[in-house]
Amino acid sequence: MSALLDIKGLHVHFPVKKGLLQREKSYVKALNGIDLQVQKGETLGIVGESGCGKSTLARSIVGLQQPTAGEILFHGKDYADASAKELHDMRRNVQMIFQDPYTSLNPRMKIGDSIAAPLKAYKKTERLESRVKELLELVGLNPDTHYDKLPHEFSGGQRQRVGIARALALEPELLICDEPVSALDVSVQAQVINLLQDLQKQLGLTYVFIAHDLSVINHLADRVAVMYLGKVMEKSEKGAFYTKVQHPYTQSLLSAVPVPDPLLERGRERIVLKGELPSPANPPSGCVFHTRCPMATERCKNEVPALEPRGLSGQEVACFYPLVEKQPADAPKDPLYV
Amino acid sequence: MLQVENLHVHLDTPGGLVKAVDGVSFSIQKGETIGIVGESGSGKSVLAHSLMKLNPEPPALYPQGTIHFEGQPVLEMGKTELRKLRGNDIAMIFQDPMSSLNPVSRIGKQLIEAIQAHQKRPKQQAREKAIELLEDVGIADAKARMNSYPHQFSGGMRQRVLIAMALASNPKLLIADEPTTALDVTIQAQVLDLLKGIQEKYGTAILVITHDLGVVAHLADRILVMYAGKIVESGSAEDIFYRTSMPYTWSLLRSVPVIREGGPERLIPIDGQPPSLIDRPAGCAFEPRCPFARDACRQVDPPLEHRESNHSAACILSSNEFEEQKKQLEGVLTT
């Protein structure tokens, strides 16, 4: 079965001019060889810290960013080879939900018009108003009272619902969600997460869900890719992510998330990483994580570990020394080791 | 050390009088860590700013209540007294470290300035102290970094600089307003570790304000939960997380995803929105969103009452009644 979305060897580099005469060129390597597949109907979670390239990846998938090298196949068709007409159709099928519902809506446009905009762009103007009302109802807004409102009359959660309705207007197959809940309050965050789950079931949507919040990713995703400095460090299946973590980076990410459980928090051992994310303009040699890795050796400085099945669980991981399944008997309650 | 009694803070806005803090009482003992949890608009930041009388006036008004710091009434202090209090006795760190630093001034200069503002020290001594502080908060190569500008620092390092600045005069109380919200998880872990370390080393009391239940579970000895300008539950971390007695706290805990295998497939969101603080409805402010609400809730605004030892909650249900209701609802939800 071919994947709905197939990303092969994707590189995105941004040129930076340097020097007195702006002649020296160097590159910020935002994405450095990404391979990912997304099957129809699943949720692929992408997690990583700021600067790891996850938003560049999202922009590349919707075609807002030209790849430097590599290809992105949607239904087996490359964006780069597509004719204008094919591209038009591909864009309809891949829609995006943005992080900040405050800046992604035109403040002077009525909610109904914002949702109608993509329909007009694709000349689907038959029954325009009733279609918009359907969409409003689908995302849990009131089709009659909310249609004529302006964005400032809405709360953050409601605005995010509008963003979702707009993304769904053209009945896409694939939705790219770039941090859709991180700007929302916790009580509202749960409403939006549940809505996204319901819509997936109801409409058979496929999600690429990007977030920095591991708990949200864990809750929603069927498979997870962990990114660091423009590379995928580890891929894992749902559930396996938390029991069979193999990459030291994933391990430290997991241990850094504070859990709302005081006794557990006090007893937990944290792996606190030293230092900060290195600059993507000048990434470290060998394994990009070696400068912060607690178990790095000479080999990690010189050789680049490939992303391949390793260790006991056979999950794909880019590390020479993957952690083995760790289940110490003295810490049975720790959710990281359950 | 710090005693807040029935504090009311109102904001006089064109849209009406916002009752941001509506009758809050609590105290902070020496060396303890208190967490204030609440969503945006719950009044937690206004409350924290009031402790140093930092809310801009206007629009802020203090119609009722008192704040005493070591016996001194903060709200009645004049400018010179407040100047002494701020920074010397109580220091604060903010959410966004970039906007709290001067972008065109070197880190070292800003630190020396902060030290000299509170202590009469010759420049050379202040400089040494600044380097020592930077080393204390874990900035590598502190001497050379004194000459850097804020933009040359990452978010986590800037937050460290602000913590160093706050520690310049050994404050007795450190107020941290969403100190890690703008940071990545691995950097957040570093900063939380740092705050804990500081407390052990200097014995500073810390007041952390956050919306992240995980952060308070990690740091706080005692927790205050705020909703619509009031404290709705307070107690030890164990009380709040394991013996929850207020529906709002319970709902908050049920609405966040937790990393745990076999965790819930579905979150239980809190329906609706927090109420407007301009015209607060009669009765309990959480009633419209509460899964346990009954008729009486619309009439009575329950006060914060003692449950057991130091655990208090503002709900008309007794702990036992609530326990029973919870079980019933959880039974329905799991089937």
Automatic annotation (TrEMBL), chain A:
* GO biological process per UniProt: peptide transport; transmembrane transport
Checking InterPro entries in the record gives:
AAA+_ATPase (IPR003593), ABC_transp_ATP-bind (IPR050319), ABC_transporter-like_ATP-bd (IPR003439), ABC_transporter-like_CS (IPR017871), Oligopep_ABC_C (IPR013563), P-loop_NTPase (IPR027417)
Record-given protein name: Oligopeptide transport system ATP-binding protein
Record's NCBIfam families?
Answer: oligo_HPY, PRK11308.1
Top-level taxon in the UniProt lineage: Bacteria
UniProtKB keywords: ATP-binding, Nucleotide-binding, Transport
Q: Name one GO molecular function term.
A: ATP hydrolysis activity
Q: Tell me its family.
A: Belongs to the ABC transporter superfamily.
Please report the stretch or stretches of sequence annotated as the ABC transporter domain: 16-254
UniProtKB/TrEMBL annotation, chain B:
Q: Which PROSITE patterns match?
A: ABC_TRANSPORTER_1, ABC_TRANSPORTER_2
Under the heading InterPro entries, the entry gives: AAA+_ATPase, ABC_Ni/Peptide_Import, ABC_transporter-like_ATP-bd, ABC_transporter-like_CS, Oligopep_ABC_C, P-loop_NTPase
- Subcellular location as annotated: Cell membrane
Membrane topology reported for the UniProt record: Peripheral membrane protein
* Keywords carried by this UniProt record: ATP-binding, Cell membrane, Membrane, Nucleotide-binding, Transport
UniProt cross-references to Pfam families, sorted A to Z: ABC_tran, oligo_HPY
User: What does the entry list under GO cellular component?
Assistant: plasma membrane
Which GO BP terms apply? peptide transport
Q: Which domain of life is it from?
A: Bacteria
GO MF terms listed in the record are:
ATP binding; ATP hydrolysis activity
Query: Which positions fall inside the ABC transporter domain?
Result: 2-253
Q: Which residues form a coiled coil?
A: none
The record's listing under SUPFAM superfamilies reads: P-loop containing nucleoside triphosphate hydrolases
The record's comment on protein family reads: Belongs to the ABC transporter superfamily.
Name the record gives this protein: Oligopeptide transport system ATP-binding protein
